[in-house]
Amino acid sequence: ITMKARKNTKSLSSGRHRWSAFKPMMVIGVLTLCNLTVLYFLHNEYLYSGLPSAIENDISPIRHYNSSNHQGHFWEHEPKCFHIDYICHANGEWFYDLSIKRRQYSLPSITYESSEGGEFDHRIHFSVLSPPLLSGMKAGLQAGDDNLKQCYSQTPYHVVIQSVFNDMMGEFYIRSILGLNQWMRKFPPQSDEDLQFYVHFNKNDASILDGHRMFLGGLPQNGKIDDFLSLVQDKSSCQCFQKLVFCGYSVSVDQEENKLTFEVAENIGHPHPEATLGLYSGGPKGSNPSYQDFRQDLLTRYAEKDPMLHQKVREYRLQILLRQGVALDNVGDIDEWKIVGLADRKYRRIWLDIDESTRACDSFLLEKVICVKVNVEEADSVEEQLLMHMSLNVFMGIHGSQFTNAVLLPQQSFVVELLPWIPDYAWGVGWAVRTDHPTPMGTIFHDTDLHHLGFVLDRGSVPLCNENRTWDEEQEKKCFQEHDNEFRWDRRNFNVRPSIITKFISSFLLVNNTHCDSIQTRASESGFVLYNTFCSRGNETSTEHYYMKETFEEDDEEAEEEEEDEEEAEE
Fold first, then answer.
1. Which of 13, 52, 139, 184 is the most exposed place for a label (fewest CB within 10 A)?
2. Whole-angstrom distance, CA of residue 75 vs CA of residue 82
């Protein structure tokens, strides 16, 4: 065309004729530039922020999302999330639905890279090839198969969530749930029916529990919660998803090869990550509303789902009293009773003398205080877990993940964490018994409307190496090391002096705890650390924290001094 334009200009003398001949060349150049620009942005939009947005197409029975006046979805803002549009699964293979118009551009190959090692679940696999890499026949079948329209889920968004140690309920709560809740508060879905969750467990022996379902039930979702394995297992029938979302992953993009690989990350992010995980890992002890936000959202959502929930809690409390031998005529107002739940673990960290501790509460029966054993593993449903913990005024037990369910306790209830005795040479001493800031598990009560206390157990709580009372420290240390598998605090069983329970009841449970100065004084006098308290100072009610100074703090101070010396040397 350029050559023809030049030839024509030789025979045309007027400027007007020259312009007419040049016009075709200019139009084609502009169109070519526009086309390349569109292709470039289609490609890069996918690579950096997930696949292209849902393309409106008349595909039944998909319910397309109305995005007008909407700020987007939470996964579009969380760096550890990405999404794939119009993806299908059949006969053990994942593939793009190419019947969607204009979808052939820049669809990449996507692969999940699982971690190596025997403890990881290698049944989890996910791989989809870019359409140009498919055979011509297979690509043609996918592009023209009208039957795929009938394979689409009625739920438009299916979300796979992952975080390390998510088989442990406390880790799952902190690393997955808290971040999701904050993102979904900021970018709420139009309807609960729009979302379905799957939990990706890395460990090959992990499975989804009622606790996972209960905490995910505190988020907007359609109530159909499953694990990731159920999604990727080979099935003869086809499944198609308008949008498949992955959260809690590190993503690597190879633009030249048009490939995306993803692998597990430590946690799902948070709009303000320093506020949540920073505190969890021993960071600054500043204000953090995330924990109270989700606690309140969780209780509110279940109350909305079941208007009879609070009445069921009252009936559950009554049954507890009757099982403990309280005569129905002596019950009176059920709300006046204080029910103390003692964590009755059956595997590791067993409270060996729990029956003796339970009987120690009998002396407070006239004051309407009763102690009961609580084992979350005996709950056979989400509702049972809710009622079991919402009926308590106190939850007390050995440091561990069973405390996660204590976020269900009523306002102003007590969470009492018994901290293991650990000598300074043993594993866990630097974090499992901290009293100068919350323990990793206890972080979830920070800035909530619950009272969170801690009490450090003594040498007498250890049921090992008691044969010879005349041993010195070195002989005792040698004995513990010989029984290392039993002695390590997270595997060890415990004894608890009943006087610890009675001291707590008389110092806190039967006393007015509304005034901050009063509860702080009683905590100090009775040897309890007050990690978090919801109390009043004058006319204002807020959360306050009263920590103990630890020997670990001296190490921290020495480290800070060394750091300051290094900074001065650098200056």
1. 13
2. 6
| Sequence-distant contacts of 311-319: CB under 8 A, at least 24 apart | 312/383, 312/387, 313/387, 313/390, 313/391, 316/387, 316/388, 316/390, 316/391, 317/391
Helices 178-186 and 290-305: crossing angle in degrees, nearest 10, is 80
DSSP 157-186: EEEEE--TTTTSHHHHIIIIIHHHHHHHHH
DSSP code at position 203: B
pLDDT 10s digits, 407-436: 999 999 999 999 999 998 888 887 788 898
CA distance 11 to 17: 9
CB 448 within 8 A of CB 534: yes
Please, are residues 495 and 461 in contact by the beta-carbon 8 Å criterion?
Answer: yes
Q: What is the C-alpha to C-alpha distance for residues 356 and 16, in angstroms, rounded to an integer?
A: 106
Cα 80 to Cα 83: distance, rounded to the nearest angstrom = 11
Q: 194 by DSSP, 3-state: which?
A: helix
**Exposure string for 332-359, b = 16+ CB within 10 A, e = fewer:** eebeebbbbbbbbbeeebebebbeebbe
Instruction: Give, to the nearest 10 degrees, the angle between helix 273-280 and helix 178-186.
Output: 170
In angstroms, the Cα distances linking 15 to 10, 11, 12 are 12, 12, 8
Backbone phi, then psi, for 453, in 5-degree steps?
Answer: -115, 160
> 315-321 long-range CB contacts below 8 Å, 24 or more apart?
316/387, 316/388, 316/390, 316/391, 317/391, 320/370, 320/372, 320/391, 321/370
C-alpha pair distances (Å), 280 with each of 41, 174, 432: 40, 8, 12
Q: Cβ-count burial of 446 within 10 angstroms (0-12 exposed, 13-18 middle, 19+ buried)?
A: buried
Q: Strand, helix or coil at 404?
A: helix
Task: Specify the pairing of strand 81-90 against strand 239-247.
Answer: antiparallel
How far does CA 243 lie from the centroid of its chain? 22
Tens-digit pLDDT profile for residues 22-64: 566 776 776 767 665 555 544 444 433 343 333 333 322 333 3
